[in-house]
Amino acid sequence: MAKKPYVILLASQKGGVGKTTIALNLAVALTYKKFKVLLVDSDTESASLSEQLGIKAEGKGYLDILGTNTEIGDALFSYEPIDLYLIPGNQDGSRTMPKPEHLVKFYGKLARADFDFVIIDSPPGLFSNEIARYLNDVAILTTPDSVSSSSSSKIAQYCQKFKLEHRLIINRMGYSKFDLEREEVERIYGDVSFQAVPEDKIVAESLMKHKPAYMIDKNSDFCIAIDELARDYALKIRQQGDTHEEEFERSTEPTLFEKLAKWFLK
Ligand SMILES: Nc1ncnc2c1ncn2[C@@H]1O[C@H](COP(=O)(O)OP(=O)(O)OP(=O)(O)O)[C@@H](O)[C@H]1O
Ligand SMILES: [Mg+2]
């Protein structure tokens, strides 16, 4: 029997908080860990994944599958430097809202696709409830400021309502000395578990080189944080009974997330 992929949606209420950057590098990190990964850019407006990678994928895009009879396997773009598969966003600047029935069909196809992980980069805003039942995990992105944190907390409430597993990723930690304090985050999010990703200049270098940060310097602070996120997801698959034999157990040393969390929650 074909296994079902573990489907992760990266979401944020506010734009520009790092969804595409983290989705891409998480996908690369999981690919390096020998998982078969499909990365989907469902942002029809900015198609920034193609821009970040410097690729042109004519006829192999989100809108080529959505609302058509094209199967996932016939529209995959293979990112050759590593064994990573993509469904890029289309670059026609279309602003049409996807029809609910098309979304259901598309996510149904994703849920049957032969991958270990499907990672979906989404446009800013609340995702539709039609797709909720196809998701295994929602990674809610925010930056450590009150505007982004308050707005993204709506997504956490939405996930609670639909009993969807979710986590908060606080990106660009350390960027400003005006980052939120512990009490503020607790007040906004309650007890949602969160993970931190630091501000790092490797991300700007990666944009300039059109190459994922994880493929430039795995030991940068940003990539160490991404690696820890990838390990967490790898453990999820193991818990679901998959038989990946790699060593994904957590070490007893505090992780970068935990160190940052202590700093952040001081
Ligand atoms: N950890 C980080 N360190 C430094 N720069 C970062 C980091 N994360 C993201 N950035 C930068 O922030 C900007 C926005 O990132 P990104 O495009 O990934 O956000 P997004 O949430 O996908 O945006 P949109 O909502 O427009 O799709 C980019 O210039 C990116 O390089
Ligand atoms: Mg984006």
In short:
The protein has helices at residues 19-32, 48-53, 62-65, 100-112, 129-132, 146-161, 182-189, 202-209, 213-216, 221-239, 256-264; strands at 6-11, 37-41, 77-79, 84-87, 117-121, 137-142, 166-173, 194-198. It is α/β, with parallel strands linked by helices and 266 residues long. Helix 1 crosses helix 10 (221-239) and helix 6 packs parallel to helix 7 (182-189).
Word description of this protein:
It is a single chain. With 266 residues, this protein is of the alpha/beta class. The protein has one domain: Rossmann fold (3-Layer(aba) Sandwich), CATH 3.40.50.300. The chain contains eleven helices and eight strands. It has an eight-stranded mixed beta sheet, sandwiched between helices. β7, α7 and β8 form a beta-alpha-beta unit. The longest helix is centred in the last third of the chain and has 19 residues. The radius of gyration is 18 Å and the shape is globular. About 4% of the residues have low confidence. Bound molecules: adenosine-5'-triphosphate (ATP) and magnesium ion.
